[in-house]
């Protein structure tokens, strides 16, 4: 499977950025990516004070390449960049080697 990682540094981000990012994901971003053609799934990850990232898994190389191209072109103006106050420090395509679903199952939600 075909992955893409987009990561921002939170080292110099403004106070309150964690809550603002969490609210943005829950209220806007989650809905944007739910049901998106060419996307298998997306996760949003964060280490407070260190980094925030989106991890995407695409169904085809064409879907990943198109998303990466258009995202990279507008990365500085993306909602994440506006909230954090800086552009991503990493936009990297990768291969997803395997995925295992645990006994507790997969639970899609806009906020945990």
Description:
This protein has helices at residues 17-33, 61-73, 79-84, and strands at residues 2-9, 39-47, 51-58, 90-95. Helices cover 32% and strands 28% of the residues. A 4-stranded antiparallel β-sheet has the order 2-3-1-4. The model has no long low-confidence stretch (mean pLDDT 96). It has one domain (2-95): Alpha-Beta Plaits (2-Layer Sandwich). It is α+β, with helices and mostly antiparallel strands and 112 residues long.
Produce the secondary structure layout.
Blueprint: E1 2-9, H1 17-33, E2 39-47, E3 51-58, H2 61-73, H3 79-84, E4 90-95
Q: Per DSSP, what share of the residues sits in E-state strands of 2 or more residues? A: 25-35%
How many domains make up the 3D coordinates?
Answer: 1
Residue-averaged pLDDT: 96
Question: How many beta-strand elements?
Answer: 4
Termini, distance in Å? 25 Å
Query: What would you report as the Rg, rounded to the nearest angstrom?
Result: 14 Å
The major pleated sheet works out as: 4 strands, antiparallel
Which overall shape is indicated by the principal axes computed on the Cα atoms? globular
Ranges with pLDDT <50 over ≥5 residues?
none
Helical residues, percent: 25-40%
CATH-derived architecture: 2-Layer Sandwich
Q: What is the name of the CATH topology?
A: Alpha-Beta Plaits
Q: Give, in spatial order, the strands making up the sheet with the most strands.
A: 2-3-1-4
Q: How many helix segments? A: 3
Q: Using the coordinates above, name the CATH class.
A: Alpha Beta
